[in-house]
Specification:
Layout (H helix, E strand, L loop, with lengths): L1 H17 L2 H32 L4
């Protein structure tokens, strides 16, 4: 997921350099959403792992 966020960030940077402001803004917005979703999923996974613990 972070790879997708980075991809949209690169697309936004290239679009901004070429002067496509609308596309750049949209790509940045998508990158932000994907990044925060990835962070939330990571935190949920970390909390679940800590609560469950490792059972051998």
């Amino acid at each position: 997921m972070l790879g997708w966020a980075l991809t949209f960030l690169v697309i936004a940077l290239i679009a901004a350099v070429l002067g496509f402001g609308g596309i750049a803004g949209t790509a940045v917005g998508i990158a932000k959403i994907i990044f925060f979703v990835a962070v939330v999923l990571f935190l949920i996974s970390a909390i679940t792992g800590a609560v469950r613990g490792r059972r051998v």
